[in-house]
Structure formats: structure tokens, C-alpha cells
From TrEMBL:
Alphabetically ordered keywords of this record: Methyltransferase, Transferase
The protein's name in its UniProt record: Class I SAM-dependent methyltransferase
UniProt xrefs under Gene3D superfamilies: S-adenosyl-L-methionine-dependent methyltransferases (2.20.25.110), Vaccinia Virus protein VP39 (3.40.50.150)
InterPro entries in UniProt: Methyltransf_25 (IPR041698), SAM-dependent_MTases_sf (IPR029063)
Amino acid sequence: MSAYESFARVYDMFMDNIPYKEWCNYLTGLLKEYEVDDGLVLELGCGTGNATRLLSDAGYDMIGVDNAPDMLEIALEKKEEEGQDILYLCQDMREFELYGTVKAIVSICDSMNYITEDEDLLEVFKLVNNYLDPEGVFIFDLNTVYKYEKILGEQTIAENREDASFIWDNYYDEEEQINEYDLALFIPEGKDGLYRKYEEVHYQRAYELELVKELLEKAGMEFVTAYDAFTKNPVNEKSERIYVIAREHGKKEKLGDWK
């Protein structure tokens, strides 16, 4: 789970091709569809805070959780520059803690794929259910098995820019459904024009939707629906990214019992 140490320094540079505004417009549309128009929202795996800040601009009281201190340091710098009221917490999503419940929890940019064990994903789902308001909404995305098998697996992606370069090798194990990212970064340091090489290894897990449903329900949550990313279309065999929507389950019944 410890990733993005060196990459944090150049993450935003290399991620400038991600249309965060469009992604967040889609996400806020889903939140509003489930009557989450404002209030406390938690983002799991917030990284450098790109989506967190956009959701804050959209009127939500944001909390961002990530386990990479270097990424959160950049998120905090952005927060100070823009004067936003965002709470960032350095926590592992498998054991995150909040002071109370929130209206919604979101997680995008394949953060959930970084959870590589069924038991750990189940624990995340249990915590999500625990920290959501009664019938609160959980929205998260996942890279699909199809994407790892047919698009990323065994591919090398490289980019050479004036300020930094990277080589990203992918190795997908179909049996384990684990994609290994071997990342080599070349970052200029000092005034002599020399580059320093950094190496990181990341792992992501591909999950079948049926297993995700099973784990959500085992965690006590209600699976609502899943979409082919950025549409309202059903998930299909060539979906590369999907969005899953689930609801908190159980608190309303308990409140009724107490009354």
C-alpha cells in the first residue's frame, strides 16, 4: 500500500491528461441524483487533492484520506494557496477513523484497485458502512479485468518531458488478477542538469463486479447499481472503468428500534 513516494513530486505533471473537472462533474451529478447536495463528504485515496478541491468548490465540506504523506503535503499546499477549508488525514483506508458520520464517501482514480486482498476490501467496505449517515451513499470507481488484460497488461508506457521523464512497465498476472507497475522516474536535481533515477513498484488488483457486490453485501451495505464510467450505461464486457454505487444499510433500522 505504500506508493507514490518519489512520484508525488511529479504526479500532477504526468496526470495533467486526466480531465478532473469532467470526472468531478460526473461524480457530483451522481451525488445529487442520490440527494447529496451538500454536507460532509469523504474522499478515500485523495492523493494530491485534485478531486477533493473540485468537490469542495462544488459546495461539499470535504475530508480527504490518503496514506501517502508526500501526496498529502502537496494537497495541503494547494489548500493553503486556494484558501479552502478541507480536512486532510494521513490514514490507511483499511483502518481509517473519523469523528462522526458523513453524507457520502467517494473514491476515484482506481484507488480501490490498490486494495489487493478480498479481506482488506471487505474491511474498507465495513468501515465505509460504519461512517456513513443512515442510507448514505458510497460511490467508487474501479479499473476492470478487461482493462488490465487487454490494455495495460504487458505494456510499456513512457513519457519524456523537459522537467521529468518516466518509464512505466506493466505485468499482469491473470491467475492472481494482479497488475504490477514498475515505475522508473528521472527527475532533474540541482543546477548541473543531471537527472536522478527513482524506482517504485505498485500493485493493483482487478475485481470482478460480482465479487464486489458480494463483498459490499457481506459488509452490510446495499449494492445499488454500476455504470460504464462517465455514462449511465450498464457495465459491459469491454468497460475499462466502472462506477459502483452502494448505500449504507442498517442504521435506520437501529434508530427505529431505539425509538
